[in-house]
Amino acid sequence: YVVKTERVVGEVSLDNCQFVDPCTRPNTCEHGGKCSVKENKIVCDCTGTGYKGKNCHFTEYRKTCEELALLGYMEDKVYKIDIDGNGRFPPALVRCEFQSIEDATKTIVEHNLPSQVDVRSIAEKDFSFNITYREFTAEMLQELISHSLYCSQYVKYDCYKAPLDLHSATWLLGSKGTIVDYIGTANRGSCPCGMNKTCVSPDLSCNCDVSAGRWLSDEGHFESPDSLGITGMVFLQQKDLEEDAAGRITLGPLECVETNTQKYVVTFTTSQSYIEVPGWRKGDIAFSFRTTGEKAILLYQPPIRKDYPSFMVALTSDYQLTFNFTLNTGTNRALEVKSGRKLNNGEWQKIWIDYNDYHVRFMINDDYGMVDLLPEEEFGPFEGSMFIGGATAEHLKTSEVRQGLIGCFRGLVVNGEILDIHSYMSVHLSEIIKDCKPSCQPNKCQNGARCVELWSNFECVCENRWAHQGTFCET
């Protein structure tokens, strides 16, 4: 026997063969997918989970309201999003405001506390209550807050002979479980008026710290992560309250303005221009482009040596993108994804790529394709530099698509980090322009002529070449 010899690695016992149900292994089926074994194969049923793929890994929803806006959604209403993408948090309902006052996309999470709730009077007892946010746990609130540009939450206490007494008689709880004994951005035990000495009595910390015979109020906006996402409130009743004393609390929804992932924009004016940036190593990747060209390399990361991992994303026809990549085994794969809308119509097109041990998913706007990986195959990690909008002349020689992008490129996000592509514009400076300003907007062509977008210039195609001529078909 080899048992109990130095040739054995790990725990091995004789005549004690036990069957281990593969469905008991962690993450066999993710996100609540139902696991079963059929014909000696593990099968995950993802029905109703909001996820897809062999092990229910890939979310069916967008991560942010901004991503919905990039796909053309502009109606302010309730949408379901998945704030951590393929992560552990489930999809949840939020209200998206796409044209907010700040001229930024806003994500709003409502809660179950009505406005103007009576919390203090001679008839009330000491009490506390928990606040729940539509399908959001406290952890999910923190996730949203941490990934937003900034968040705020309005709070107001109205009082009639009912002092606020922050810290001693009134305190709130943030989503992190922290005690919030202040209003807005004030110091502990204080309200905004106490910070700038504008309270009804200058020596007080809050308007409602005086037992006045008239209605007063203290209000503000919470902005720090410790105070955002109020999940609990505690109100103790003061012993000396008068019979007609009253205190009321109002708490607004959690409102978050999202980070603008699309702020770095460039225009490539020739098919030979490109930007070299640090390569994609792992994680997901996303970007947007717009063009009127027929074919173009959009992203390219060549192998550092033969048969090493590499990938290329290219526009290959009016309605198709092709994703070529080399796996760790040296195997070349190609995924052609058909789009339901024309990809070279001059409008922005949004691309996402993500993967796990079983699949690589490639998304164009609302369409997607998946590549299954064999057990021995691995997608990435990639090495070397990545080229945006094209590649070097040497690399183009061996490429199926041999021209770069003439058009605009923006919003390169690698593994959750926004890449400042402007800072890498060291070469081809005369051929690459910051921002994206289509030359056909406004249309300078006259007499019904069609404007052809060239992204640094334009061409007018006269409706009737015999009747009109000139640069603008003006004569």
TrEMBL record:
Residues 19-57, 437-474 form the EGF-like domain. Keywords: Disulfide bond, EGF-like domain. Gene3D superfamilies: 2.60.120.1000, 2.60.120.200, Laminin (2.10.25.10). InterPro entries: ConA-like_dom_sf, EGF, Laminin_G, Neurexin-related_CASP. PROSITE patterns: EGF_3, LAM_G_DOMAIN. One of its GO terms (cellular component) is membrane. The keyword Disulfide bond applies. Residues 264-436 form the Laminin G domain. CDD domains: EGF_CA, LamG. This is EGF-like domain-containing protein.
